[in-house]
């Protein structure tokens, strides 16, 4: 299924059914009183958080969604049937905007939560309701209240505990494959990952946590260059960033060039990303000639804790997983097995 993280839909709640104008007519009763029933209420449009959903793909095709109108009232004081609700099943992390004003209407984060975004119109009252001592034969009833129509913009921001960031070809897809059961496309050229991937990691202690593999960032990403801001938004909700760097590509003369470039893009996108906890990881230590490059990087960043791994061979990955689990669940000792 294609990854879709934005969609615009038009919704409309059901209109209320009209009240009924009716009079009792039975044998031996020539002039019965009013017995018109009320109209049924229109159906609501309801947003439902569905943890099984991963994209907004369904709503690239379904542009118009409507709840059912209420049925009109009937004679003998029979109330019209209420209209059926319309449900939009959305993945966790979906933000719902008013497409006209760009106002945030709701941020859907809680699994299985349901929110009425457009309430159905109330059914009109039948003429039975208007009978009084001075007007015993009312020949009118109320129309139903119209439903509410809105245009919504849906935007998905993936919800993960850890986000992997780095330049293209840093090895993020290989690392998430080594850490979890996720199997993104892997190849030795830039922009192999064209869509975000989430993998669930089971550490040796504590609760499982989710890791998001974000497509590689390049200079100018905050302005949309490369895959740009289309994917930067997906790491805004993560608690921790793993900053992955290809150790074989470190320039000994300017060892922090890659590190600074990515951090600048994060800061230019938002203060939220710039201030997130980062775990710096040097990857591809299995390649020859990386020792001096790694040493130059560590010397240039002496106050930073730095992990060295080979995502391809698995070396150092378990240690990294334990550290991430401890950061996410600080009550659990890191050295617990």
Automatic annotation (TrEMBL):
One of its GO terms (cellular component) is cytoplasm. Its main location: cytoplasm. Residues 1-159 form the Obg domain. CDD domains: Obg. Gene3D superfamilies: GTP1/OBG domain, P-loop containing nucleotide triphosphate hydrolases. Mg(2+) binds at residues 173, 193. It is found in: Cytoplasm. It is an enzyme of class 3 (hydrolase). The keyword Ribonucleoprotein does not apply. SUPFAM superfamilies: Obg GTP-binding protein N-terminal domain, P-loop containing nucleoside triphosphate hydrolases. InterPro entries: G_OBG, GTP-bd, GTP-bd_Obg/CgtA, GTP1-OBG_CS, GTP1_OBG_dom, GTP1_OBG_dom_sf, OBG_GTPase, P-loop_NTPase. The keyword Cell division does not apply. Monomer. PANTHER family: DEVELOPMENTALLY REGULATED GTP-BINDING PROTEIN-RELATED, MITOCHONDRIAL RIBOSOME-ASSOCIATED GTPASE 2. This is GTPase Obg.
């Amino acid at each position: 299924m294609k990854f879709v993280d934005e969609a615009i839909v038009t919704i409309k709640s059901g209109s209320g059914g009209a009240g009924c104008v009716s009079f009792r007519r039975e044998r031996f009763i020539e002039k019965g009183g009013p017995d018109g029933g009320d109209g049924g209420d229109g159906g609501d449009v309801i947003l439902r958080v569905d943890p099984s959903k991963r994209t907004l793909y369904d709503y690239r095709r379904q542009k118009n969604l409507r709840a059912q109108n209420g049925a009109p009232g009937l004679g003998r004081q029979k109330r019209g049937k209420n209209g059926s609700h319309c449900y939009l099943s959305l993945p966790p992390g979906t933000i719902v905007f008013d497409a006209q004003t760009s106002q945030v209407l709701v941020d859907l984060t809680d699994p299985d939560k349901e929110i009425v975004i457009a309430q159905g119109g109330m059914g009109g009252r039948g003429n039975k309701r208007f009978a009084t001592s001075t007007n015993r034969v009312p020949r009118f009833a109320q129309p139903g209240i119209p439903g509410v129509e809105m245009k919504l913009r849906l935007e998905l921001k993936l919800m993960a505990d850890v986000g992997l960031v780095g330049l293209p070809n840093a090895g993020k897809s290989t690392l998430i494959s080594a850490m979890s059961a996720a199997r993104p496309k892997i190849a030795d050229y830039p922009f192999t990952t064209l869509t975000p991937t989430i993998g669930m990691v089971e550490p040796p202690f504590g609760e499982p946590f989710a890791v998001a593999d974000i497509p590689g960032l390049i200079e100018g990403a905050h302005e949309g260059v490369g895959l740009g801001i289309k994917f930067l938004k997906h790491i805004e909700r993560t608690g921790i960033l793993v900053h992955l760097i290809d150790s074989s590509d470190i320039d000994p003369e300017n060892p922090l060039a890659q590190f600074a470039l990515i951090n600048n893009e994060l800061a230019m996108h938002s203060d939220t990303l710039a201030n997130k906890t980062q775990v710096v990881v040097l990857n591809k230590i299995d390649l020859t000639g990386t020792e001096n490059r790694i040493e130059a990087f560590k010397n240039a960043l002496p106050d930073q804790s730095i992990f060295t791994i080979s995502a391809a061979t698995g070396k150092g990955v378990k240690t990294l997983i334990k550290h991430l689990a401890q950061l996410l669940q600080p009550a659990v000792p890191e050295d617990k097995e």
